[in-house]
Each structure stands twice: as structure tokens, then as C-alpha cells.
Amino acid sequence: MKKGLSIVINIILFAIIVLLAWQVVKSIQAPIKFGNEQKAREAKVVERLIDIRNAEVLYKNANNKYTANFDSLILFCQNAEIPIVKIVPDPTDTTFTRTINDTIGYVKVMDSIKSKREDFNINDIKFVPFSNPQQQFELESGNIDRNGIKIPVFEARSPYEVYLATPGTAFSEKEWKQRVDNAKAEKENINRYAGLKVGSMEEATTDGNWEKL
Known about the structure:
Elements (H helix, E strand, L loop, with lengths): L2 H61 L6 H10 L1 E9 L9 E10 H6 L23 E9 L2 E11 H4 L9 H17 L5 E5 L14
Antiparallel strand pairs: 1-2, 3-4, 4-5
């Protein structure tokens, strides 16, 4: 074999080895990069779901029910006030064992929610972060029956397909979609919601599914 041909073959073999090594490294790094991107996005989605929960709980305390209408929820947060209650001894109780709730003032709902997160914007509460085009959270409310007693419930949610719609910078559209499909299949295989949600239309809970992992 001529020396020049041998050199060419060695170069080709080296290039193939480098390409295969790169493919191996890429296959290892891809799920890590996807997982990091998913976690970063879900952190923002969870923040928004907590905002919705805080607003819904205050709405329910004032109206004895939750709402499935974001416009009503936003209007409530912008205009309603909630009482500041102080627990004090009952002055009519000579045994000094009973207490009463004494309303000492009122605070705007908006101020109460803002205090929980500084960058809170009530007008953004209905929109799912990273959705493109921009989409709203799915919001439901109603009642469930527990031994003849109607208990108000609500649920706000967003599936993977919404906040994981656009590919991360390290992925092609095809690769990203495959990762999202795989993540969705993993959740569905264990009968869990493929996305993030807070509350439930089947249980009397205001927990988020990220809190039940």
C-alpha cells in the first residue's frame, strides 16, 4: 500500500473515531441539558401557579367558592380587601378559656399577594411562562361531594406541550420534540399528569403536583 494512501485512510479513520466519540458525548449530555432546561422553565411555571393558588384561596375566603374565570380573579385581586384578624380573649368569658376574632383593619388583596413575591404582576397571572404563542393556564372550579357536604375545589394546570413548546438552544426541533414526548410518556406510564398543576377537581386540596413527588 502506498504511503500516501495509508495516510489518507488513517485520517479518515481518525475522523470517524472523533465523530463517534462526539456522538457518544452528545448522547450523554443531551438528557442532562434537557433536564436542566426543563427544571429552569418549570421553576417559573411553579411560581405562576403559586400566584394563582394564593389568589384563589383569598377569593374563596371572600366568596365561599373558587373561580374558573381569570378576569374575575384578576378583578378581585385589584379591588377587594381582606380583614386583618387578631385573636383576643373573650371579654365575656370568666374562665379565660375562650377567644374571639377581632378585626383590626383591612389590607388590599393585591398587597397581600405582592408580599409573597416581589415581581408579582396580576396581569400576567393567567399566562403560562415560555408558551409560544402565549397561552393561558387551564383553570377549572366547582364542588365535590363528601358525605353530602359540597366542598369547593379548583385546578390550574399546563401540560408539557405548552411551556416546553419551543426548543432549547442546544437542540434541533426534532430532537427537542422527541425529548418532550419521552418525558410525557414517562409520566403517563405511571398515571401522572404530564405537566404542572395546582389544586384538584377530584380532591379537596390546594397542593401542587410538584409538591407530591
